[in-house]
Specification:
By secondary structure, the protein is α+β, with helices and mostly antiparallel strands. Helix 2 packs across helix 3 and helix 2 crosses helix 4.
Length: about 190
């Protein structure tokens, strides 16, 4: 942390209130999401109470804000989070000949997930049904794939985007060479 402790304690109430308003949450909403009582949230926002680390942690999780960033005071609007290529988490054990790079932040899991898919020639990613109503949006950067969703199949080539139900069994198979694509999964 780069600021002096008194400055942090002085600015913390306003930062929490700003984060709550940015999320469009009421005091009751934050209380329900965080497990911190409504009255305590209100007291913290008014600067009448100093939260414990555990309370602050629960509030930052509920407000989907970075714990350290909240204390450092950098405005979320003035920050750019850069994840270097070497630091992007990947999954190499799903499907055959597939590498899945996870581009979305962990807090988006199950809501709005973004992946880069690297599929070797002849590789295939087979997926079981996701939650009811889930959809996938697959944009091909390089190569050609056959996308299957339930009983429907479509050939998708570089520059194309396929949108399909993901709450049924579905698959993406490389055709005629390696594939690079971006996959957005909604409501997984």
């Amino acid at each position: 942390m780069t600021e002096n402790p008194d400055t942090i304690l002085t600015q913390l109430p306003a930062r929490l209130k700003e984060a709550r308003r940015t999320q469009g949450l009421s005091l009751d909403g934050v209380a329900k999401l965080s497990g911190v009582s409504r009255s305590m949230v209100s007291q913290i926002e008014r600067g009448e109470s100093s939260p414990t680390i555990a309370t602050l942690w629960n509030l930052t999780r509920a407000l989907q804000v970075d714990f350290a960033g909240l204390l450092d005071g950098a405005s979320g609007l003035a920050q750019i989070e850069t994840l270097r290529a070497a630091d992007v988490p990947s999954i190499d054990n799903l499907g055959s000949g597939c590498r899945i790079r996870i581009l979305s932040p962990p807090e988006e899991a199950g809501k709005h997930e973004v992946y880069e898919l690297l599929i070797a020639q002849g590789g295939k990613l087979e997926s079981k049904p996701h939650t009811r109503g889930a959809r996938e949006h697959l944009s091909i950067v390089e190569g050609t794939v056959d996308v299957t969703s339930a009983d429907a199949t479509s050939r998708v080539t570089a520059g194309d985007t396929a949108r399909y139900a993901a709450d049924v069994a579905h698959s993406i198979a490389a055709v005629d060479g390696p594939v690079r694509a971006f996959l957005v999964v909604q409501d997984a």
